[in-house]
Write a structure and sequence with these properties.
Elements: E1 20-23, E2 27-29, E3 34-40, E4 46-54, E5 57-58, E6 67-70, E7 79-89, E8 92-97, E9 101-106, E10 113-116, E11 127-132, E12 144-150, E13 153-154, E14 164-167, E15 176-184, E16 190-192, E17 196-198, E18 209-212, E19 225-230, E20 238-244, E21 250-256, E22 260-265, E23 274-281, E24 287-288, E25 292-294, E26 304-308, E27 319-325, E28 333-339, E29 342-349, E30 355-360, E31 367-374, E32 380-381, E33 385-387, E34 397-401, E35 407-408, E36 412-418, E37 426-432, E38 435-442, E39 447-453, E40 460-467, E41 473-474, E42 478-480, E43 482-483, E44 490-495, E45 505-511, E46 519-525, E47 528-535, E48 541-546, E49 553-560, E50 566-567, E51 571-576, E52 585-589, H1 597-615, H2 712-716
Parallel strand pairs: 2-9, 35-43
Antiparallel strand pairs: 1-3, 3-6, 4-5, 4-7, 7-8, 7-9, 10-11, 11-14, 12-13, 12-15, 15-16, 15-17, 18-19, 19-22, 20-21, 20-23, 23-24, 23-25, 26-27, 27-30, 28-29, 28-31, 31-32, 31-33, 34-36, 36-39, 37-38, 37-40, 40-41, 40-42, 44-45, 45-48, 46-47, 46-49, 49-50, 49-51, 51-52
């Protein structure tokens, strides 16, 4: 509360001494206003100008203002105040001064004092600043606010009602001049403390260390590498740098206010391996760490498998080296070798490089090979490499496949040659009596066949040969007998002499020009089997016949070696001039053929009559060897008749009997063909004249018969 007092000027009792007075408070607090009023005594004078003084010095106020105010009093405003005025009335003028009044301006609060918890703090340590002051007791209710400054810059958040400020960590750059200010909430009074000097002390770095920090395990190529550099002690901003020993160059640099720093290499390469160190510096001498070895493990690349053969071809028994090598990859590396995905061997290489595995080849070792490399960072498999183990061809087996039990001329025979072992392609050669028949190839292995149409010359030894360029192998010889069907036999009648008489031996010679033995021959007289003879070694056979008068007629023979019967052409035997006391002349000729329908009927009748007479004994027959027709069944045969006109007739003295014509039938070669009528062939029996001693036959025109040759086409069709 302001204490006001009135200034009473006691002067002389004269009227002039109290005419002008200064009204002003005697005591005020700083920040308050000082109101000054210069007053005259009540009379008829009028004040024209007023001047105020402090300690005898004029204050700058307007001259016409009788009352003034100093808005914010400060202690410097304390002093002796007075005023002077000029008055006038009409044409009169006068100047008067008031008595001096002492005005004292009191402090609202004292000047603040800045106190610091430590004027020599260590970097990183906290410091508390306190601005100490308080309001005068008469104004204890006045609210104050505070602000702290360093080198002219406000600290913290600025003005605050708290007289203290805590700095959590002081650094060397925080060194400087500090002060504080205090002011009233109405902003009327502000006071500043004296400046205080704070020196922040720095701790040198010490015990620098470097280590690897890799959160995902070992340092793998392509992954991240983190190098951690740390110090045991050190304050302030520390500059960390990382260096590689080989180059002495810095690979990274960081400055930060911490005791450690990290350098991250995002994609480390194998070439980043080596020895590293780091340095730390906070303004003192830099400190270096120990050397640290960094090993970068790289995954293996896809290995390459190489088959190293001892020769141009891999054969059974050869030793093949399987070499597997990964061009890149940190050791140790484990190599595995595979054949058709079956493990053959495992080989570890501690110092890197490749590995080899030797394999003694067998026939089962053909196939696909591969290898695998693994160093714990992921296995890699090589490309597949095929290996063809060349197996020499084994001795082939020759098989002769015939369409029937016997190999017959005209049959198609398959010669099958096959080697049980051998790498393809295999070339086969076929031999007959060491003469090459032909060749063929089996591109994918196995056997091969060669077809042969048999002829009579194809009997003999057969063999085959297999060759796959590793040596030819020949099979065992296989014997093949080509059975040749018999050709049409030729029947020859051989007399014992130039003339034949009853009782002489007649040799019937039957022979084939070709045909595989053994051959069985049948001899026929008028299609009645006389007998048979076997020829074990082929060629012909003979049958002897003791002639009688009934042996005139048609003769033929048949040959058979199991492949079909062949029948000879008919041969006719005629007795000329039959007589019991005369020499018999024999004419041998080939029978003629009468193919007309009436002729066939007449012939059938005569044949029936002739056989009836012979069975009743009227036509006796003699011959050698004896036989029974039931012992042999006549086989079927075919072939045309032929005429033999070169057999000379033989004459004997004629017997005393009247010549009679005798008819006999000779069956056609197709007699036994199904649904065919037998053909009848007529022959002539000529008579010999008794007086013809020269053996000449005299023909009777009424009784002569000519030998008619049988047309081959007629017989065949």
């Amino acid at each position: 509360m302001l204490l006001w007092s009135l200034l009473v000027i006691f002067g002389p009792l004269s009227e002039e001494a109290d005419w002008l007075t200064l009204d002003a408070p005697s005591v005020v607090f700083e920040g308050d206003s000082i109101d000054l009023m210069c007053q005259k005594k009540k009379d008829w004078w009028e004040i024209q100008t007023v001047v105020y003084y402090r300690d005898g010095k004029q204050l700058q106020f307007p001259d016409q203002v009788s009352s003034v105010s100093i808005p914010r009093a400060a202690p410097s405003d304390s002093g002796q105040y007075s005023c002077s005025a000029t008055a006038g009335k009409y044409f009169l003028r006068k100047s008067k001064s008031s008595r001096s009044v002492r005005i004292e301006v009191l402090e609202l609060f004292p000047r603040p004092v800045l106190t610091v918890s430590s004027y020599w703090p260590t970097e990183g340590s906290p410091v508390t600043l306190t601005c100490e002051t308080r309001p005068a007791p008469q104004r204890s209710n006045v609210q104050l606010q505070f602000c702290f400054f360093r080198d002219g810059k406000a600290l913290g958040s600025g003005w605050s009602s708290s007289p203290a400020l805590r700095v959590p960590a002081m650094w060397t750059e925080d060194s400087g001049s500090y002060w504080c200010q205090a002011e009233t909430a109405t902003l009327t009074v502000r006071k500043q403390s004296l400046q205080s000097r704070i020196h922040v002390q720095r701790v040198p770095v010490s015990n620098v260390s470097l280590e690897i920090w890799a959160p995902r395990g070992p340092v793998i190529e392509g992954g991240s590498l983190v190098l951690l550099c740390s110090v045991a002690k050190g304050t302030g901003n520390i500059t960390f740098s990382w260096h590689r020993e080989a180059t002495r160059t810095s690979v990274g640099r960081k400055t930060q206010r911490s005791l450690s720093a990290e350098l991250e290499v995002p994609a480390v390469q194998e070439g980043d391996a080596g020895r590293y160190y780091c340095r730390a510096d906070n303004g003192h001498d830099p400190v270096q760490s120990q050397l640290l070895s960094v090993c970068v493990r790289s995954p293996v690349s896809h290995p390459v498998l190489t088959l190293r053969e001892l020769g141009p071809q891999a054969g059974v028994g050869d030793v093949v080296e399987l070499h597997c090598e990964a061009q890149r990859g940190s050791p140790p590396i484990l190599y595995q070798f595979y054949h058709e995905n079956v493990t053959l061997a495992n080989i570890s290489v501690p110092s890197g490089g490749g590995a080899s595995f030797n394999l003694s080849l067998t026939t089962e070792h053909s196939g696909n090979y591969s290898c695998e490399a693994d160093n714990g960072l992921g296995a890699r498999r090589s490309e597949v490499v095929p290996l063809n183990v060349t197996v020499p061809a084994s001795h082939p087996i020759l098989t002769v496949k015939t369409p029937r039990a016997l190999a017959v001329v005209g049959d198609m025979v398959e010669l099958r040659c096959e080697a049980q072992r051998g790498s393809p392609p295999i070339r086969y050669r076929y031999y007959h009596e060491d003469v090459i028949l032909g060749t063929n190839s089996a591109p994918s292995g196995g056997g091969a066949s060669f077809n042969l149409s048999l002829t009579a010359e194809h009997s003999g030894n057969y063999a085959c040969e297999a060759d796959n360029s590793l040596g030819a192998q020949r099979s065992e010889a296989v014997k093949l007998s080509v059975t040749v069907p018999v050709s049409r036999p030729i029947l020859t009648l051989n007399l014992a002499g130039p003339q034949a008489v009853v009782g002489d031996l007649l040799e019937l010679r039957c022979e084939v020009q070709r045909g595989s033995p053994p051959i069985l021959y049948w001899f026929y007289h008028e299609d009645v089997i006389l007998g048979n003879t076997s020829a074990p070694s082929g060629r012909g056979a003979s049958f002897n016949l003791s002639l009688t008068t009934e042996h005139s007629g048609n003769y033929s023979c048949g040959a058979d070696n199991g492949l079909g019967v062949q029948r000879s052409y008919m041969v006719t035997l005629n007795f000329t001039g039959l007589s019991t006391s005369k020499v018999i002349h024999i004419t041998v000729g080939v029978i003629g053929c009468l193919l007309s329908v009436p002729g066939l009927a007449a012939t059938a009748y005569l044949v029936s009559y002739f056989r009836t007479q012979r069975k009743s004994g009227r036509l006796p027959a003699t011959g050698t060897p004896s036989y029974s027709p039931k012992e042999h069944q006549e086989p079927s045969w075919s072939g045309p008749c032929s005429t033999d006109r070169h057999k000379p007739p033989h004459s004997e003295p004629p017997a005393v009997m009247e010549p009679q014509p005798v008819y006999s039938n000779a069956r056609s070669p197709r007699t036994h063909q199904k649904n065919e009528e037998p053909a009848v062939i007529y022959s002539e029996l000529k008579k010999a004249q008794p007086e013809d001693t020269a053996g000449q036959a005299h023909e009777d025109p009424a009784e002569n018969y000519e030998n008619l040759p049988c047309a081959p086409s007629a017989l065949d069709h």
